[in-house]
Please model this.
Amino acid sequence: MARGNYQFPSDHRTNILERKAAAERLASNLDCYDAIATISETARKYHKQEGQYTILVGHSFGGLVVERSVAHAINAMTHGYGDSEKSLPADLIVLLNSASDSILARQMIAALYSRHLEGKQQFVVSLTSSGDGATGNWFRFGTSVAAFSKVFDKVGVPGRKKEKRKTEKLFYTSTPGHSQFLINHETRYLRADPNRSGKTAFEANLSGVDPSDPYVFATPIDNSKSGPLKLWRFEPVGSVDVPYWDVRVSPAIIKDHGDIWNDKAQAMVAAIFRLNFPLPRKPATKLHL
Model:
């Protein structure tokens, strides 16, 4: 798991620009991708039975490093180069409150959309809390200062053929989870559930909460392990459904930038896991990322 700092110091503008530049330098180094690929390859050698997967997780500027490091592998897979199963360094890439700008995400989503891959199994899932001010307001403020010295072309908006082209500055100054043009899913609250099964939300999400709707998932209402649950749904937003999910998450699940491993967030990630992979036949145990 690659992760960035949880806290942004008082000089947010300078800190964001410096850390963003450092993360970009790291991600552009082929040694970074080689390290990720080597670790993944080693892990996969121990996958001796069904139901074992490699998941690559990046948080904050760690999300930037992960996304940019594996961009070439993603590009190769989407264009059918080589062995598609081996071209990616992980079976699933999860970005949590990513502090990457939206330029690369826009390019990847546009490429997937142009290849008519709607409805296919996700291989990148970006989860961002709408309450994350660090990747929202502060990121926009810091990068807007840097944007004064740059010239931006106009680019197309993925999946919106009738919409006019937009200046790329809009993607440079926003993270994917705060880009109105890229978000294609959001978490929508449905209702409370008495949880008669006695399962934790994590366990319920691994097995499936609603047989008729795989996009429904549960979160705990309180700290009790098998108490009442809240039911949510991954709701499609807009017309594009490609293997790159850009999900706007309610602050009721992930409160802010660093609140990524609370029980509710872990339960949601379990639902993402279940959506992408078949369950092992043996009773599921807690997912360790």
In short: Residues 5-13, 281-289 have pLDDT under 50 and may be disordered. The chain has ten helices and ten strands.
